[in-house]
Amino acid sequence: QSLPQQKLLTWLSVLECVEVFAEMGTARVWGEMGRWTIIVLIQLAKAILRLLLLLWYKAGIQTSPPIVPLNREQQQPLHPQDMEDSSSGKDQTYVGKRSSRVMRSLQSTPSLQSRHWGSPQQREESQSRRAEEMNQPPTPLGLQETIAESLYITRPLLHLLSLGVWGQRSWKPWLLSAVLDISSLSLLSDLKDLNRRERAELRRRTILLLYYLLRSPFYDRYSEGRILLLLRLLADYVPGVGFVTRPLMDYLPAWQKIYFYNWG
Fold first, then answer.
1. Residue 16 within any structural domain of the chain
2. pLDDT, position 113
């Protein structure tokens, strides 16, 4: 990735990290009007950055979070002693004569902080496989797939616009958002030879369709009573589950009020 593209990804990651805090803080300081203003500004900035990545830098299907979290266990470099042993030609493993079990030799045992329980070969293979997956270029998108990804990127802006036109109690914003999400996924489903990160992102988007059961006005009219009844039954009749379900019942009303938790 080029340096400008990395900067765009960094700024996009920062926006996704602070969006909930910005919404709640602005609502507390400037009230409801300030809250919706910061929501529109953040969604507009995110859409612009994502469209630049899609159309200018050909970033393909964009993942969330934009920068893949670092797996420190797999990315941890080899211990200096291991590197010296491998360069000097020392055997790092011992193979049992009767069991044929591979064990680390005592000479190549690293310090406690960098110790792992796999053989050096397994660790090197996992690191190389992880590096190969991370370095895979994005799958090129045709016109249909580019339109699908653009629909997914602009869906929050269209949803906010529909909220301003028809109000928060109307079914039209909910239906418009659902149609855009389903259309984007159906258009992207024809794309073949996706890499691992892109397949995981499409699975994540498909699972997030369940959020429509928790979004107003569907939640207010249909889901709320059934969900609270199910959580109450689990808390009353399943031992130990109440420690999770009772706080969740208290949290749901607050979760419903935060746009970036619910729609962002």
1. yes
2. 55
